[in-house]
Write a structure and sequence with these properties.
single chain; mainly alpha; 17 helices; about 60% helix; globular
Length: about 350
């Protein structure tokens, strides 16, 4: 068997030789540019790993049938949990970046134009793979403007394929338990209605829109929806009865997707504050509006928003409609019969 050397295996000559500060090329040395380069290279390596994990999850969920008792669903949850852990690390890297002061950054900032983190095609591709659609994006005029043709083509290809949230929708729609519990949703609707205070009565309209009960569906709402009413009912059922063994992994899947959104939002928020600290109200090196653009992304770029909205429609456990013994058996360790 061929012997492998640590340096060769990791291709350290390439990696450690990949830092070329612009300030050195201009013979105006700026000490903190090395830190700036290494942090952004680390970001891109982690983006690559996250895409690797999400692509593998994407492939598993593309199967026409996924047994919720199978190791495959555990694999999906595990790899998405790893993604959350990596995203937490990306947030923590901002602490290192913030050891650079605004004056340190100004030593080399103008030498970077028009390079910008906005040109990270990997991050844009990752957002698209998970389900952020073009019409949901803030700053659409900047979105692909500064990318190279081959990068634009790659992102367009990803956008043309099924997203993670679209596959999640199909998986939820296949859940058999709603048919096996006839009348459950109607009973739950009555329970939910009676749980609302006088000031919460407006929630009933949102409830009807979410679960396809409204006599007149909001066209704008329907156009922005990524989860169908049936999938939303299935997700609600999972959240409410997650204590049953067969629903524990499905609940973990929904929960880890919310964690991904939370970590992405935290990363954007920390990034926004760091940019404001570094350049104030000046425009970004790539021509964006700097902090204002980032704030718009923080407010708008929630991929799994519809899962989060389901928490508005939960009631206390003691008020849940009781499932019959046959359904309880199907949700137990014995699984269910198709």
């Amino acid at each position: 068997m061929k012997s492998v050397h640590y340096s060769d295996y990791l291709q350290l000559d390439k990696i450690l030789g990949a830092q070329q500060p612009e300030s050195d090329l201009h013979q105006q040395p700026a000490h903190d540019e090395m830190l700036f380069i290494i942090i952004h290279q680390a970001y891109e390596l982690w983006f690559k790993q996250i895409m690797y994990e999400v692509d593998s999850v994407h492939a598993i969920l593309q199967q026409p049938s996924l047994n919720d008792n199978s190791p495959e669903l555990q694999t999906v949850v595990h790899r998405l949990q790893r993604t959350v852990t990596i995203l937490k690390l990306l947030v923590q890297q901002i602490d290192v970046m913030e050891t650079m002061t605004p004056m340190d950054f100004l030593d080399f900032r103008d030498m970077l134009r028009p390079a910008s983190g906005f040109q990270s095609w990997q991050f844009k591709g990752l957002e698209a793979r998970m389900g952020l659609r073009f019409e949901q994006r803030h700053g659409q005029e900047y979105y692909l403007l500064q990318l190279r043709p081959e990068q634009v083509a790659l992102i367009k290809r990803i956008e043309s394929e099924q997203s993670l949230i679209s596959l999640l929708n199909e998986w939820l729609e296949r859940m058999p338990f709603l048919e096996q519990a006839p009348g459950w949703f109607e009973e739950y609707t009555d329970v939910y209605r009676s749980s609302l205070s006088e000031k919460e009565q407006g929630n009933l309209d949102a409830f009807a829109q979410m679960f396809g009960m409204a006599q007149k569906q909001d066209s704008a709402d329907q156009q922005n929806r990524q989860l169908s009413p049936r999938a939303s009912r299935a997700a609600l059922f999972i959240m409410l009865y997650r204590g049953y063994p067969i629903l524990q992994l499905p609940f973990q899947l929904l929960n880890v997707l919310l964690e991904i959104d939370e970590q992405l939002s935290t990363w954007r928020y920390r990034h926004m504050n760091m940019v404001h600290r570094m350049i104030g109200t000046r425009i970004g090196t790539g021509g964006s509006t700097g902090k204002d653009y980032l704030k718009g992304a923080v407010d708008k770029h929630y991929i799994f928003r519809e899962i989060a909205q389901l928490t508005s429609f939960l009631v206390e456990r003691r008020h849940l409609p009781k499932l019959d013994t046959i359904m309880e058996k199907r949700l137990g360790f014995g699984g269910y019969e198709k």
